Amino acid sequence: MAKDKVTNHIRKLRFEHNEMTQQELSELCGCTRQTIIALEQEKYVPSLILAIKIARVFGKTVDDVFQLPDNGNED
Amino acid sequence: MITQTKIRARFGLGIWGLVAAAFGLVFFLGGGAATFADDSIRMGIAAAILGSGFIGYCSMLYLTREKKDGIALISDERDLEIARQANEIALVAVLVFVYVVCIALFLGYETAGNLPIGWMWFLAYATGCFGLLAQAVATLVLHSEMSVNG
Q1: B51-106 pLDDT, tens per residue?
Q2: CATH number among 3.30.450.20, 1.10.260.40, 3.30.300.230, 3.40.50.620, domain A7-60
Q3: CA nearest to B130, candidates B90, B79, B72
Q4: ipTM of the predicted structure?
Q5: To probe the interface with B, which of A24, A26, A35 has the most B CB atoms within 10 Å?
Q6: Is the pTM of this model over 0.90?
């Protein structure tokens, strides 16, 4: 089974929130800065818990931050 | 900041790379498998090398542990995922290594009908080194795949 590709708006949302740094976001979410980098480059799919934490930081729903394209399971 | 998993993988690669090289020299120089089991000096040196490797590795794990008063996080779910995948890769690598060594020994000594018991020491020591090296390499490769500068 092909890996699902998940896209996100984390980078855009960071800049919309007073140009929040990756380090600040990582501290608010309880993860490392490397994970935020990997998420922004869409090289890592977060757990549901981390996705909810990130969405809460931006005051959005998980769906607003992360998207699973319709053809996401067709690689 | 480098994460705990990556630091440990780098040190692990260095420690077990040195141990593997030193053990290889001790094992293959001075007679190889044919004389290894009867040579108490080489056996002792090999055991000391492996022992030093384990002590060094355990010390490194202790020194790089997550401290309670640590300000920044040094590992998270992504590191755990990388460690999980690296362990799976290392397990498969070890299985392949043991298979290849066993088949090579079989083919090498098939006509002789028996093989020097020193090869059992080689298999025992080399499997440990190879497994830990494979785990370290897999961790570093997965880290680079999951992040450009992570």
Answers
A1: 999 999 999 999 888 776 665 557 889 999 999 999 999 999 999 999 999 999 99
A2: 1.10.260.40
A3: B90
A4: 0.76
A5: A35
A6: no
